[in-house]
Amino acid sequence: MRRKIPLIITFIIGVVLVTGYFVTRGPFNTLYESFSDYFAIITVFAFILGGGSLLKIHLKRVSNRSTDWPYSVVTLAGFLVTLVIGLFKVGNPDGLGGEVLAAGSWLRFLFDGVYNPLSATMFSLLAFFVASASYRAFRARTKEATILLSAAMVILLGRTPVGAWLTAWMPESLGFLELPNLANWIMAWPNTAGQRAIMIGIALGVIATSLRIILGIERNYLGRRE
Asked: How far is it, in rounded angstroms, from Cα 95 to Cα 89?
């Protein structure tokens, strides 16, 4: 019975949401909008659950002096300081009724002075990981890898002044073979077609998984049977 009730609730909500999305008038659409509000409330509790899980994991690491436990101390300190400042809007010129990220507030300072620089640092480090991964992936061992390597080289050169300089000698009748034009063509046609194919595949996968959940075929979200 403990498993049947969640399955029934999932089926009813799934049918209402699907119907309400396509039927823009009537009771199903009203229920669709009401469920959307409930989902926002559930999301808040999910944030609370996530914060509690973060505290539990890192407090355990600190208490057990696990590997790299000082990083857990930094994580806990950053989480708690940001949480307190955000909840009580410390330093907000308009008090508790003002915007969370109002100019001059402490949370705005943390966002502009700490979060943004850290995000920029992470993205700058990703460039080296991407370069390393590209070196391993672009080895022309197969036909597919050779095509990928060729397209990557055309785009990399076509996006820089070097690419335009290398093919500047071509006559106007062969202008489409210039590296900048080839790079634009690859990005506009093969790249767009590939992205759309991937998105269609993802959409079909989401539809299939959703139907399995609504019909009760997929039950992993209920946990293991005791």
From this structure: 7
Q: What is the pLDDT along the chain (226 residues), one digit of tens a residue?
A: 678 888 888 898 888 888 888 887 878 778 888 887 888 888 889 999 999 999 999 999 999 999 899 999 999 999 999 999 998 988 888 888 888 888 888 999 999 999 999 999 998 888 788 777 777 766 767 888 788 888 888 988 898 888 888 888 888 888 888 899 999 999 999 999 999 999 999 999 999 999 999 988 888 877 766 5
- The whole-model pTM stands at 0.63
> DSSP assignment, residue 221?
G
Residue type, 52: G
* Cα dihedral 199→204→209→214 (10° resolution): 120
Alpha helices in 140-217 (DSSP H): 143-158, 161-166, 179-188, 190-214
